[in-house]
Amino acid sequence: MNSELNNLEWFKTGFETYNPTPSILSKIGSSLNNYTIEVIMDEDCKDVQFLIPKLFKTLYLCKVNSLKIYHIDKNILPVNINEGSNKIEKVPTIFFIKNGIEQFSIVEKIIYGSTIENEIDVLLSKKKINN
Does the pLDDT value for residue 8 go beyond 80? Predict the structure, then answer.
C-alpha cells in the first residue's frame, strides 16, 4: 500500500495479520470512496503502530484510492498540516474529507467500535443521520 511503510516490520506484521470483518467491509466500502482520507502519523508512536496497519488493511480491502499520508514528529505537536486546518495534537489523526470539508475524524484511538472498520461504520452512520 505504501512502500515506505511496507519496510517497517510492525506495519508489515500488523497489515498481514489483521482480518477485518467482511460484512462490515462490504457495508462501508462504497461509502469510503466518496472521501479523501488523510492520515497524520509518527512511526514511533505506539498508537500509530497499533492502529495504522489495521486502517490500511481496511482501506486496501475497500479499494480506497484517495489517501494522503503525512509523517510528522510527535515531539513537535501541535502542528498544522495545511493552511486553515485544525492543529494536530495527537497521532494518529485520521481525517475523512468530502468535497474539501472534514466530515469526521479518528484521533489517537477508536471510541465507538471494537475494530477500526466498525468505528468507520459507526462514524459513517452518524454522518448519514446528521445530514
Answer: yes
DSSP string, 35-59: SEEEEEE-TT-HHHHHHHHHHHHHH
Task: Domain 3-130: give its CATH superfamily.
Answer: Glutaredoxin (3.40.30.10)
Distances (CA, A) of 5 to 34, 80, 98: 24, 22, 25
Contact status, residue 28 vs residue 117, Cβ threshold 8 Å: yes
**CA 80/CA 22 separation, integer angstroms:** 35
Average pLDDT, the chain: 89
Q: Which of 131, 114, 115, 113 is nearest to 123 (CA)?
A: 113
pTM: 0.90
